[in-house]
Predict the structure of UbiA family prenyltransferase.
Amino acid sequence: MTDAPTASTVRLLFASSHPGPTVTVTVLAAVIATAVGHPFWVVLLVALAVVAGQLSIGLANDWIDADRDRAVGRSDKPVARGLIAVGTVRTAAVVTAGVAVVLSLFLGPVAAVAHVVLVAAGWAYDAGLKRTVVSVVPFIVAFGLLPVVAVAAGPDGGWPATWAIATGAVFGVAIHCTNVLPDLVDDAATGVRGFPHRLGLHASGIVAFGSLVVAAVLVLVGQLGGDDPVRGVGAVLAVLGAVVVVVLAAVGVRLVLTGPPTRTLFRLVIASSLVLVVELGFAGAALVA
């Protein structure tokens, strides 16, 4: 099979890049960078670097797992369906990783190192850590470092507040567990036994949505406490946002305990992340240590 650089190939590559998480992580980074007052060019640079890194991680996942996805009949994977060559996806993964590294160099030393480590964590997961008990570690590292990338970027970048780093880390746990839940049977058939697999369906789901609640509380405390708390409408929205995330988490736990695992669980986490994005947008200077 040969693939010309056509619109169809680009579409298939995008579908292979795990576009939902890619877009969500990029938006989160851009919102944080905007909230702390970075100029537009820094926000744009952060967004471009992060989207390149996330594209590379998603593409590497589909390239490395091509045989496994084909064996279990993953109809949502273009590579598994034979719609695009493995080599094309591999090349795109390497190229976007290179672009991410180059763009990171312009973020400043702290943000650059943080982003390169973030991308490396994602690739380490794809390359084999997903099959081990420490499969959650790359997610904790990557999402914990995301605020560092966004806040430390640019010539006037600072260091993010501890609560922002902690929020990212626990949110990574929720992302990992809910993303894996629908694939537990397929993963077991192909020898993948990561952290969520060893916990089991119910325990993993409870850990995932419990992590969401922890993230919501951390964001709420971060906004209402400290030396520069939000006031007025911002405080009201902070409380409402936390309540919404807790409700979504409760719905998620109920679905885990009463029905088969579906992609709805992951969508609940994505929806919660968008609520947290809005909250972080109002956090402003509180995001900076």
Q: What stands out?
A: Residues 233-258 form the longest helix (26 residues).
